[in-house]
């Protein structure tokens, strides 16, 4: 069986069967969810093994006709970027199941059913190679997330859920218009075929036409990322969502936007992307600094992490629009890093909330005394998030900044301010929550990690260290794919990177070693 | 007019669905005194049997496709598509009616007979190829629906609905009739194909009639038909009528007569008036945009669910008009597909509303759906499918229909209409989501606590359209291919 299809079929089957589990047995729902999500993860582990790391293009393709007119195919394949994002999704789903084991007590069956449907949608987005299919997964992932926020969220959950849905939907319909328009021009929805047509010059757009198409796609992705100033839905959604929702939202769903920019906006509309790049970079840098500054003054931990996401995702967008190999590699790596470390931060915030039932920083203090292991694990995550060497974010941020420096040195300077600010707000929060006087409530309620929670924390921390120490596991297939994207963006564009000595790509550096 | 008017066997076969329905409807009225005391469900069963037989008749008629009665009827794929559609709508109207009528102590033979007559009229409209037949079909369908809207004699709102529907409906029919008269005057024919030939200058006289006359005729007919499909700016009646009519009747009005009127709309405008297409295109363009915008924005403010669905139905008429604006075979096919998807999802949503409305239709507010997801998960799940389809979320018929319509529009270079239409559908998401919010994110309220368990009829009325909606969304190929094949109206 085709491996991407298997990875898609498992959560879908899991969702359908989860609907059949009797309502009276929440335990059954939980066990089914963990079993099927672990099975999905196991299946997806085969992905990097069978993936040919040397080849640049899509692999493990399955392409069968779905609808005859218009010509729509079920066309899935993995490339060097989608590969890791799929793994990130399947890795985090079991973690989300475990983290919700105790905290979700109402309508358990539906919760896990929606979680599995969400996994199906997310994995599909990263595997779809047919534009129509991509749009289907894109929208399908919206529905379970809407319910996750709206049913299991906190006080203002309904407002947050509706806002989330409407923001995303508005962007999506513009993208749908652009997708249909592309079809009327190319007579196919096949992504590789369209890229090939554009590359070989068989399909070309007038500049104004290309710009509108680019903007239509970009609007959908920019809302999802979210790029400043379209980020206003994000803090609401994050704060109100249940822990599992926050984790999936921050770690995977936001990556749909950056993945989309990299996968669609750049290769399909190269010259429009280049024209807009300086403006988008400005927005990205504003996002980096603005997100960090707003994070600093948040009294609410979840909101702080949410704004830190705006800042971190700014780095990803910056990396992409430097149009350098380093910047693109760094951007992709940063997507994965952010998935792991921000996912972990939300997990920890969730653990604290489960114990103390508060998200306010001022309600905590001295947690390190009450729960030393929890504090240690949180510290590692905090350090990873602010980019300490040997931990994952350092690699990504370094590559992005290097790429930015090659493209325009000033961009790197401004972006680096964001790195410094992130150290400020994260460490300051850590200090206020974990050190200082032990509050009575904290001493009484905050217990250390239990076995189930260790099972959640250890894989996350192991990944942070692995990705920080040995990025060669992950980067070579990414570089192959981004190099191809970069090559595709040279089409019809008189553009040259102004460097005297082209830096060596990370992949080459590895080979040389 | 055709010279010879002899009947032959194939004419009768092509007229089979209408014959079956008329006979059965009359039979029901005759049998009323005998059956009424025995079983209260007998008429419902009879109607369903009649409709299923008529579907069989329509399919059989299609095997003998061709013109009937000297070209007054045209039994082709297009006609068969709409005949089957309105017949299915009929079945889906009757399924929830069992419990609804029993709850109001209002089970009579008239209700079912009127419904059957109305559907007979719509079948006739679907197959009409002659303006007089169109008019007769329109009247049969409309007069029965006027009465149905006022079926609850003692209810003020129901009376208001019937009166409003009747007065404005007659007014619109008059407009249509003026158009017919002008066409007859200008071309000397009421046959759609013959009139088209004259307009193209290929008629017996040779010379084409003055474009102004044809244009005025098209505009007059547009007014009449625009009223029937509740397109803006002729949509005023819809919210009041939809709110006042008994809920299953509202469901029927929003799907059956609308589909049939669109069938006529498409057939007239894509054959007779096709040669002057560039003249009426701006008119339809404007009406499409206006319908979508008025429908969606007004729906945002509604608290009564039937009223909200009325405005939503205005918006959906706008989407279909977008397909008509495309003026292409793909556009016609898209409109056909969309109407099928719309009929299923809308009638399903109304089935849920009629289930919950309670005795005397007390519960009609959006708040009354609070907590339905906890108390009746099946009803809520099915209604969610309909609502997601109305929003246009992928894997539902509503999404694919919308996708197909806007694809047709872009192929005809209607870029702005497409963008504005799609943005409109994002606005629409808000008011459909409100019902989802109520069902799943609120605690059960009075209406839900008092809700009856689902009866088998209602269960079928919810599950069948939901399956249809998903089928049209996931495997649209069969319907799409049939629509695409039948969409060539110019013969």
Task: Tell me the overall shape of chain B.
Answer: globular
Distance between the termini of chain A: 37 Å
Mean pLDDT of chain A: 88
Q: Give the biggest sheet of chain B.
A: 2 strands, antiparallel
Percentage of residues assigned to helices of chain A: over 70%
The number of domains of chain A: 2
The arrangement of helices and strands of chain A along the chain is HHEEHHHHHHHHHHHHHHHHHHHH
**What's the number of structural domains of chain B?**
1
Tell me the number of strands of chain B.
Answer: 2
3D structure, described in words:
- The complex is a heterodimer of chains A (513) and B (491).
- Chain A is mainly α.
- Chain A has 22 helices and 2 strands.
- Chain A has a two-stranded antiparallel ribbon.
- In chain A, helix 4 runs parallel beside helix 11 (243-268).
- Chain A is globular and about 70 Å long.
- Residues 494-500 of chain A have low confidence and may be disordered.
- Chain B is mostly helical.
- Helix content of chain B is 76%, strand content 1%.
- Chain B is globular, with a radius of gyration of 21 Å.
What's the short story on this structure?
By secondary structure, chain A is mainly alpha-helical. Chain A has helices at residues 3-20, 26-50, 80-103, 108-127, 131-140, 142-152, 157-186, 191-199, 207-224, 233-240, 243-268, 270-296, 301-320, 325-356, 367-370, 372-385, 392-407, 409-434, 440-445, 451-469, 475-488, 506-512; strands at 59-67, 72-78.
Keywords:
heterodimer; A: 513 residues; mainly alpha; 2 strands; B: 491 residues; two-stranded antiparallel sheet
How do the helices and strands line up, and which of them pair or pack?
The complex is a heterodimer of chains A (513) and B (491).
Chain A (H helix, E strand, L loop, with lengths): L2 H18 L5 H25 L8 E9 L4 E7 L1 H24 L4 H20 L3 H10 L1 H11 L4 H30 L4 H9 L7 H18 L8 H8 L2 H26 L1 H27 L4 H20 L4 H32 L10 H4 L1 H14 L6 H16 L1 H26 L5 H6 L5 H19 L5 H14 L17 H7 L1
Chain B lengths: L8 H6 L1 H23 L3 H22 L2 E3 L4 E3 L1 H27 L5 H19 L3 H19 L6 H32 L4 H8 L11 H18 L8 H8 L2 H26 L4 H24 L4 H21 L3 H28 L15 H4 L1 H15 L5 H15 L3 H27 L4 H4 L6 H19 L2 H10 L5
Antiparallel strand pairs in B: 1-2
Helix pairs in contact in B: 2-3, 2-5, 3-4, 3-5, 4-5, 4-11, 4-14, 4-20, 5-6, 5-11, 6-7, 6-11, 7-9, 7-10, 8-11, 9-11, 10-11, 10-13, 11-13, 11-14, 12-13, 12-18, 13-14, 13-17, 13-18, 14-16, 14-17, 14-20, 14-21, 16-18, 16-20, 17-18, 17-20
């Amino acid at each position: 069986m085709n491996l991407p299809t298997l990875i898609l079929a498992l959560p879908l089957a899991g969702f359908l069967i989860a609907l059949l589990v009797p309502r009276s047995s929440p335990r059954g729902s939980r066990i089914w969810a963990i079993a099927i999500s672990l099975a999905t993860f196991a299946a997806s582990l085969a992905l990097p093994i069978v993936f040919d790391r040397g080849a640049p293009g899509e692999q493990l393709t399955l392409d069968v006709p779905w609808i005859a007119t218009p010509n729509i195919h079920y066309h899935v394949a993995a490339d060097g970027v989608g590969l890791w994002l799929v793994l990130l999704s399947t890795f985090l789903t079991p973690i989300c199941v475990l983290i919700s084991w105790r905290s979700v007590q109402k309508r358990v069956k539906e919760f896990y059913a929606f979680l599995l449907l969400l996994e199906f949608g997310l994995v599909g987005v990263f595997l779809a190679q047919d534009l129509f299919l991509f749009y289907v997964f894109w929208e399908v992932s919206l529905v379970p997330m809407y319910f996750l926020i709206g049913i299991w969220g906190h006080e203002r959950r309904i407002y947050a859920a509706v806002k989330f849905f409407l923001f995303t939907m508005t962007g999506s319909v513009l993208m749908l218009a652009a997708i249909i328009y592309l079809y009327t021009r190319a007579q196919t929805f096949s992504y590789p075929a369209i890229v090939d047509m554009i590359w070989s010059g068989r399909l070309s757009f007038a500049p104004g036409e290309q710009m509108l198409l680019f903007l239509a796609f970009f609007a959908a992705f920019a809302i999802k990322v979210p790029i400043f100033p379209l980020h206003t839905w994000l803090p609401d959604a994050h704060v109100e969502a249940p822990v599992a929702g926050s984790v999936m939202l921050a770690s995977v769903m936001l990556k749909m936007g950056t993945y989309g920019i990299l996968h669609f906006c750049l290769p399909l509309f190269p010259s429009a992307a280049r024209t807009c790049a300086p403006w988008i970079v400005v927005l990205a840098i504003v996002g980096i600094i603005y997100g960090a500054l707003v994070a600093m003054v948040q009294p609410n931990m979840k909101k702080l992490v949410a704004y830190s996401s705006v800042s971190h995702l700014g780095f990803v967008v910056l990396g992409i629009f430097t149009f350098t190999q380093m910047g693109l590699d760094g951007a992709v790596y940063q997507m994965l890093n952010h998935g792991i470390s921000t996912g972990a931060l939300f997990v920890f915030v969730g653990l604290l909330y489960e114990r103390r039932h508060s998200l306010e920083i001022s309600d905590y203090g001295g947690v390190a005394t009450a729960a030393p292991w929890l504090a240690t694990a949180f510290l590692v995550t905090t350090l990873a998030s602010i980019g300490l060497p040997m931990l994952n974010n350092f690699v990504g941020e370094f590559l992005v900044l290097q790429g930015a420096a090659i493209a325009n040195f000033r961009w790197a300077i401004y972006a680096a301010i964001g790195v410094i600010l992130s150290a400020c707000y994260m460490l300051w929060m850590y200090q206020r929550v974990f050190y200082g006087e032990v509050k009575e409530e904290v001493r009484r309620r905050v217990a250390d990690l239990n076995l189930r929670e260790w099972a959640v924390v250890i894989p996350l921390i192991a990944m942070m260290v692995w990705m920080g120490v040995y990025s060669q596991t992950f980067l070579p297939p990414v570089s192959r794919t981004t190099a191809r994207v970069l090559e595709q963006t040279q089409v019809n564009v008189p553009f040259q990177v102004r460097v005297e000595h082209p830096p060596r790509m990370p992949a080459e550096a590895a080979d040389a070693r | 007019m055709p010279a010879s008017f002899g009947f032959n066997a194939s004419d009768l076969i092509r007229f089979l669905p209408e014959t079956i329905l008329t006979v059965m409807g009359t039979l029901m009225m005759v049998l009323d005194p005998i059956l009424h005391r025995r079983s209260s469900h007998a008429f419902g069963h009879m109607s369903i049997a009649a409709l299923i037989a008529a579907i069989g008749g329509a399919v059989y008629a299609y095997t003998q496709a061709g013109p009937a009665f000297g070209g007054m009827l045209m039994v082709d794929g297009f006609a068969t598509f709409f005949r089957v559609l309105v017949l299915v709508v009929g079945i889906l109207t009757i399924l929830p009616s069992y419990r609804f009528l029993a709850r109001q102590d209002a089970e009579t033979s008239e209700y079912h007979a009127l419904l059957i007559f109305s559907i007979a009229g719509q079948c006739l409209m679907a197959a009409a190829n002659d303006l007089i037949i169109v008019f007769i079909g329109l009247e049969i369908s409309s007069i029965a629906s006027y009465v149905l809207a006022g079926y609850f004699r003692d209810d003020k709102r129901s009376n208001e609905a019937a009166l409003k529907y009747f007065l404005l409906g007659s007014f619109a029919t008059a407009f249509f009739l003026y158009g017919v008269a002008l066409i007859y005057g200008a071309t000397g024919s009421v046959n759609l194909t013959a009139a088209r030939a004259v307009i193209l200058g290929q008629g017996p006289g040779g010379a084409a009639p003055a474009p102004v006359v044809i244009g005025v005729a098209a505009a007059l007919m547009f007014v009449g038909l625009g009223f029937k499909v509740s397109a803006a700016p002729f949509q005023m009646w819809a919210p009041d009528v939809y709110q006042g009519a008994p809920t299953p009747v509202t469901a029927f009005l929003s799907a059956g007569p609308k589909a049939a009127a669109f069938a006529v709309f498409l057939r007239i405008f894509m054959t007779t008036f096709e040669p002057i297409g560039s003249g009426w295109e701006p008119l339809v363009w404007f009406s499409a945009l206006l319908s979508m915008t008025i429908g969606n924005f007004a729906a945002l403010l509604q608290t009564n669910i039937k009223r909200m669905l009325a405005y939503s139905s205005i918006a959906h008429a706008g989407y279909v008009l977008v397909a008509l604006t495309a003026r292409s075979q793909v556009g016609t096919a898209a409109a056909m597909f969309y109407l099928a998807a719309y009929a299923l999802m809308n009638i399903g949503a109304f089935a849920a509303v009629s289930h919950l409305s309670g005795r005397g239709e007390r519960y009609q507010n959006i708040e009354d759906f609070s907590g339905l997801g906890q108390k009746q998960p099946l009803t809520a799940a099915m209604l969610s499918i309909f609502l997601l389809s109305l929003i246009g979320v992928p894997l539902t018929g509503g999404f694919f229909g919308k996708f197909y319509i806007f694809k047709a529009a872009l192929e005809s270079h209607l870029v702005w209409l497409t963008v504005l239409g799609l943005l409109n559908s994002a606005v629409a998401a808000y008011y459909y989501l409100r019902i989802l919010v109520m069902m799943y994110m609120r605690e059960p309220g009075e209406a839900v606590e008092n809700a009856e368990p689902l009866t088998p009829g209602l269960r079928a009325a919810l599950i069948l359209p939901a399956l249809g909606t998903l089928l049209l969304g996931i495997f649209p190929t069969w319907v799409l291919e049939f629509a695409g094949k039948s969409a060539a109206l110019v013969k």
